[in-house]
Amino acid sequence: MPVENIESGLVRLQVYLAHCGVASRRASEQYILDGRVSVNGTVITELGTKVTSGDTVLVDGRAVEPESVRRYVLLNKPSGYVCSLADEKGRPVAAELLKPAYSERLYNVGRLDMFSTGLIIFTNDGDFAARLSHPSAELEKEYIIETSLNIPRNLASDFEKGIRSGDAFYKCVKAEQMNARKIRIVLIEGKNREIRRVFEEKQIGIKSLERVRIGNVTSDNLKTGMFRDLTEREVTGLLALCRSSTMENNI
């Protein structure tokens, strides 16, 4: 299926919502299933529904429209912030750190858990978010982990070969032990809390977990809690690193 463009006519509702900066396509699908979206006064719960730029679309009773300016923002997330647009438990939300600088509604591409720090990308470009977050993109993410106990010497090689924990199987692209209590790990799939679960399986406490690279993008001395716009070269490079041949068949 070709990539849908809102200027070309009918598009799926979740695609339209992503172009409006409501949320990523996957999150927008859940908005629809939860009955939070209406089109021309009718609540929509069917994911196959298509709309045009002339339709009136409301999310939680508020009108949304496609945003004309595309934003691509890199945040160095501090510990203690969750990666969602809102949190039912009232915890601090990472997206709030961006609001003083951007009028557009930006959402995170992928996640970092509350106590992890480091790089996360925010955007209002649904196509961009879909390409980067799709599992078949195989975009590398690099992490530095510091532990409270010495790391077993065979952990890096075991993680590269694959570690089973319960019903899950975890495997990294590369692992390199930097010293007795510090290790560098590169993932492409990034299952939920994958690194933490591997270390829990080995009964090793994590002092800090920081994401230091996403594809071709690094912190470039960006301090914790600060953010910057991605350069055009970085955006183009990220898309080039995604496996486009499989992506265009799945977006």
How would you describe what is shown here?
The protein has 3 domains: 6-63, Roll (Structural Genomics Hypothetical 15.5 Kd Protein In mrcA-pckA Intergenic Region, Chain A); 72-136 and 216-247, Pseudouridine synthase I, catalytic domain, N-terminal subdomain (Alpha-Beta Plaits, 2-Layer Sandwich); 140-214, 2-Layer Sandwich (Alpha-Beta Plaits), CATH 3.30.70.1560. The protein is 21% helix and 27% strand. The protein is built from 7 helices and 17 strands. The chain is elongated, with a radius of gyration of 19 Å.
Brief rundown of the structure:
With 251 residues, the chain is an alpha+beta fold. The chain has seven helices and 17 strands.
Q: How do the strands and helices of this protein lay out in sequence?
A:
Blueprint: E1 11-12, H1 13-19, H2 25-33, E2 37-39, E3 42-43, E4 50-51, E5 57-59, E6 62-63, E7 72-77, E8 107-109, E9 117-123, H3 126-133, E10 141-147, H4 155-161, E11 163-165, E12 168-170, E13 174-179, E14 182-187, H5 194-201, E15 206-214, E16 217-218, E17 227-229, H6 232-241, H7 244-247
Parallel strand pairs: 9-15
Antiparallel strand pairs: 1-4, 2-3, 2-5, 5-6, 7-9, 7-17, 8-9, 10-14, 10-15, 11-12, 13-14, 15-16
Helix pairs in contact: 1-2
Overall mean confidence score, pLDDT: 88
The DSSP helix count reads 7
What is the top-level CATH class of the largest domain?
Alpha Beta
Helix fraction bin: 10-25%
Show unreliable segments: 245-251
The 3D shape can be described as elongated
The arrangement of helices and strands along the chain is EHHEEEEEEEEHEHEEEEHEEEHH
CATH 4th-level superfamily of the largest domain? Pseudouridine synthase I, catalytic domain, N-terminal subdomain
Domain count: 3
The share of residues in extended strands comes to 25-35%
Number of strands: 17
Query: What is the distance, rounded to the nearest whole angstrom, between the alpha carbons of the first and last residues?
Result: 7 Å
Query: What Rg do the Cα atoms give?
Result: 19 Å
Sheet with most strands: 9 strands, mixed
